TrEMBL record:
Residues 53-167 form the Non-reducing end beta-L-arabinofuranosidase-like GH127 C-terminal domain. This is Non-reducing end beta-L-arabinofuranosidase-like GH127 C-terminal domain-containing protein. It comes from the Archaea. Pfam families: Glyco_hydro127C. Residues 1-27 are annotated as: Disordered.
Length: 169
C-alpha cells in the first residue's frame, strides 16, 4: 500500500491492528507499507506544524505580511471570532515565538475543523479621545490571541470580515 505524504509533514505515526513499524518513505513522496493484508486496519497520523509563509517581495500589497498555513491548508481570520477590526492584529512570527501557534481540532465548529490560535498584538486605543489624526508615533500595543480557521470554511457562521494576509510584529 502506498500513501501520499504531504511535503509539510514533519513526522508520522503508523498504527492500527497488526501495525509493524512506520513503513518506508519513497523518493517520490509516498509512504510504502509492504506486507500481507488480512482485513487489517491502518491508521496514519501526520504531524503538520503551523507555518507562517510570506509572498514574493514583488507582491506589494502583501509586503510585511504572512499567511498561516498547516499542511496544504491556508488559514484566515474571520470577524465572527474577534472583537475588533482584523487589520489591527499583528502576528508574532519570530523564531522564538513559533511555539505560540497551536492547532486544535474543534468538533462542534462547522462539523469539525482544525483551528489555529496565534499570539498577536493590537494597538491600545486609549489616548485617542475621538481624534482622527495625531502626530505619528508607534502605538502602544497589548498582547492578544487570534483564532484562524481554514480558508475553505470562512463565511459559514455569519457574514463578516475576512483576512488571510496578516501584518507581522
Amino acid at each position: 500500500m502506498s500513501v501520499r505524504v504531504n511535503g509539510e509533514a514533519v513526522s508520522r505515526t503508523l498504527g492500527g491492528n497488526n501495525a509493524d513499524g512506520n513503513g518506508e518513505r519513497s523518493d517520490d513522496g509516498y509512504l510504502v507499507i509492504d506486507r500481507e493484508w488480512d482485513g487489517d486496519r491502518v491508521e496514519i497520523t501526520f504531524e503538520l506544524p503551523v507555518v507562517p509563509v510570506q509572498a514574493h517581495p514583488s507582491v506589494a500589497v502583501d509586503a510585511g505580511r504572512v499567511a498561516l498555513t498547516r499542511g496544504p491548508l491556508v488559514y484566515c481570520l474571520e470577524g465572527v471570532d474577534h472583537d475588533r477590526p482584523l487589520h489591527q492584529y499583528r502576528i508574532e512570527t519570530d523564531a522564538e515565538t513559533e511555539s505560540n501557534f497551536n492547532a486544535d481540532y474543534r468538533d462542534a465548529l462547522l462539523d469539525g475543523v482544525v483551528t489555529v490560535t496565534a499570539a498577536a498584538t493590537v494597538p491600545k486605543l486609549e489616548g485617542w479621545d475621538g481624534q482622527l489624526y495625531r502626530p505619528a508615533a508607534e502605538p502602544t500595543r497589548s498582547r492578544e490571541s487570534v483564532t484562524a480557521i481554514p480558508y475553505y470554511a470562512w463565511d459559514n457562521r455569519a457574514p463578516g470580515e475576512l483576512r488571510v494576509w496578516l501584518r507581522k510584529c
